[in-house]
Amino acid sequence: MHSCLPLVAAGALFASAAIGADKPVNAGPYVPSPTSVVADMLALAEVGPKDFVIDLGSGDGRIVLTAAKVFGARGFGVDINEKLVKEANEAARAQGLSDRASFGIQDLFKTDIRKATVLTMYLLPNTVNMLKDKLLAELNPGTRILSHDYPLAGWIPEKYVQMDLEDKVHISGVTTTLIYLYVVPARAEGRWSARLPAALSKEPVRLSLQQQITRVAGAARIGGRDVLLEEARLRGERFTFRLALGGRTYAFTGTVKGGAIEGTVEGGALKDAAWSAAPAN
Questions:
Q1: What is the DSSP letter of 167?
Q2: CATH of 14-183, one of 3.40.50.150, 3.20.20.70, 3.40.1160.10, 3.40.50.20
Q3: Span 121-133, mean pLDDT?
Q4: 190-279 carries CATH number 3.30.565
Q5: Collapsing DSSP states into helix, strand and coil, what is residue 91?
Q6: pLDDT tens digit string along 262-281?
């Protein structure tokens, strides 16, 4: 998809190559960009007043400042450049945003990101993928991640925007720019004991799910046979799939939360019929 979005801003950030490591690596260049791009990027993630935005490599702070000023969100940014961090905090004070936007000098691998509902980054590809385990371990299901230019290997983006920008040539040698939007998935992998509407099964049904980050596959053991889940998808806590039973196809929707799955199923004579699942013993 092509867009007229300008180039995303990024901070100059040097971070440890791994948590606890001492040798810093260059995690990305500082690329000052028009504020308008930041608003477009945050709009892609549907940022709003209830959000807490964390920017890894925040530069002069324009992403978090725009999130606060334009979208009413709160948040903070981290960067290793003391001068840029000082400028960002001064800008927050000057714009009357200090209560909602702050900045600090931190190693991004050691930054506590658990409060984020939206996380943004413009980092080198190796750094982006070294962060994958941290993102999965610390971010809550449903958190949106915006990555400029470099994808998270193994993750399926919810959306991406591609554009051609002459300003990009001096950075990467090409005009192509990408913004990837991801949603952190819940953990659904394992064996579940599910209770379906009596019309589908009077006995508990065993669900066996395999998960590779945002990809989910599996089968339901019903009536002594395994039925493959079709079109299985996990977006944050929302789990959807289809089952073909008795010549009909049933659409399941559920929420994975607190060690359980609860939702509804539709198909045939069923409409908004309840189903649930708990971890199997």
A1: G
A2: 3.40.50.150
A3: 90
A4: no
A5: helix
A6: 999 999 899 999 999 999 98
